[in-house]
Amino acid sequence: MDVFLSIALGIALAAATGFRVFVPLLAAGLAARAGWIPLTESFSWLATTPALVMLGTAALLETFAYYIPGVDHVLDVLASPVAIVAGVIASASVMTDVNPALMWPIAIIAGGGIAGATKGSTAVVRAKTGVATAGFGNPIVSTVETTGSILLSILALLLPLVALAAILALLIWAARKVGRHIFGPRRKPGELTTKSTKHTHDSDDTRSSL
Fold this sequence. Notes:
mainly alpha; 0% strand
């Protein structure tokens, strides 16, 4: 596998751990078991039968736990550091053509960082949805997260560069949404001047009437 493709695959799988921790690791293990992708020597255990059974069980338990009210929010808190670790493992496990001196910094900074960013974005969406719908919309968010993790993992294995581009676009969109939520909607350049001028005119009219 080409160096850039293996890096893109690693980062894309790491991002998918931000949606569900174990699904991308399971996908990587199954793909390696089928001979679709190679794994680095240190993580060849991901393709073993015991590892696949444990990852499959963990993925199912994680998925169903997010449908339990209250537990989903606890999992968001607990899964954040776990997602970062899983992101590092997912990215490092498939970067077979990358020198270890370069692989680990990329896995830790890019893989762990993008996993944390994805997890943070989903946690914000879940919190806002929970407040807006009194918790009734959280199962929909959980379904979208699980589906996103599966689809992103598959896309990463088939088209790593496309998956990486999609992730970057998603993170930019999420950052803008969070920015608008924190700082408010962005005003047009002339809007503030117009409002200031209108306020001045209103004040003048008030003084004139007096």
